[in-house]
Automatic annotation (TrEMBL):
ATP binds at R21, Y37, E97, K116, D117. Its main location: membrane. Mn(2+), Zn(2+), Cd(2+) and Co(2+) support activity to lesser extents. It is an enzyme of class 2 (transferase). InterPro entries: DAGK (IPR000829), DAGK_sf (IPR036945), UDPK (IPR033717). Belongs to the bacterial diacylglycerol kinase family. One of its GO terms (biological process) is phospholipid biosynthetic process. A divalent metal cation binds at E97. The gene is dgkA_1. It is a multi-pass membrane protein. Keywords: ATP-binding, Cell membrane, Kinase, Lipid biosynthesis, Lipid metabolism, Magnesium, Membrane, Metal-binding, Nucleotide-binding, Phospholipid biosynthesis, Phospholipid metabolism, Transferase, Transmembrane, Transmembrane helix. This is Undecaprenol kinase. It comes from Acaryochloris thomasi RCC1774.
C-alpha cells in the first residue's frame, strides 16, 4: 500500500513561508483558468489511473457503437450519461485517494480504509450500471445487424 505521493510538500518551516502559502491558493479568477485547472485534473487522472483510461476507452466504444447503430437520441444520451458517470466516479475516487493519502501520510488507518473502499465501490457500482445500460440498449440492435450481415 506504500506509494509515492506526487509532489508531497513537507510541513517544515520553509513550506509555511508566505510565498508558499500564497502559491497554495491559486484561485481561478476567470473562467479560462477554471477550465485549465479542471483539464489538469482530467489529464492527471488519465496519465496516472489505468482504470480511468480503460473506462474512457470503453465509454468511447459504447458511444461510437451507439452512433453506428443509429440509436435514438434519448438512448444515446443514456449511454453517454452512464459512461460519463463512471468517469466522474473515477475522478472523485482519485481525488479522495489523494486527500486520504495527504491526511494519513501513508500510515494505516481504519477510516482511511473505509473511505477508499467506499470510493472504489462507487466506481464499481457505476460501472455495473453502465454495463447493464449498454447491454440493454446496444446488444439488441447489434445482434440484429450481425444476424442480418450473416444472413
Ligand atoms: N492509509 C490506508 N489505511 C488503510 N487502508 C488503506 C490505506 N490506503 C489504502 N488502503 C487500502 O488499500 C486499498 C487500495 O488502496 P490504494 O490507495 O492503493 O488504491 P488504488 O489501488 O490506487 O485504487 P485505484 O485502483 O482505485 O486507484 C484501499 O481500498 C484500502 O482498502
Amino acid at each position: 500500500m506504500k506509494k509515492e505521493l506526487p509532489s508531497a510538500i513537507p510541513l517544515d518551516q520553509e513550506s509555511q513561508s508566505p510565498l508558499r502559502r500564497a502559491l497554495s491558493f491559486q484561485v481561478a479568477d476567470n473562467l479560462f483558468a477554471s477550465f485549465r485547472y479542471a483539464w489538469a485534473g482530467v489529464s492527471y487522472a488519465f496519465v496516472t489511473q489505468r482504470n480511468f483510461r480503460i473506462h474512457t476507452l470503453i465509454g468511447s466504444i459504447a458511444l461510437g457503437l451507439g452512433v453506428y447503430l443509429k440509436l435514438p437520441s434519448v438512448e444515446l444520451a443514456v449511454v453517454g450519461l452512464t459512461s460519463g458517470l463512471v468517469l466522474v466516479m473515477e475522478l472523485l475516487n482519485t481525488a479522495l485517494e489523494a486527500v486520504v493519502d495527504l491526511t494519513v501520510q501513508q500510515t494505516y488507518h481504519e477510516l482511511a480504509k473505509i473511505a477508499k473502499d467506499c470510493a472504489a465501490a462507487s466506481v464499481l457500482i457505476s460501472a455495473l450500471a453502465a454495463v447493464i445500460v449498454a447491454s440493454l440498449l446496444l446488444l439488441p440492435p447489434l445482434w440484429a445487424v450481425l444476424s442480418a450481415t450473416m444472413g
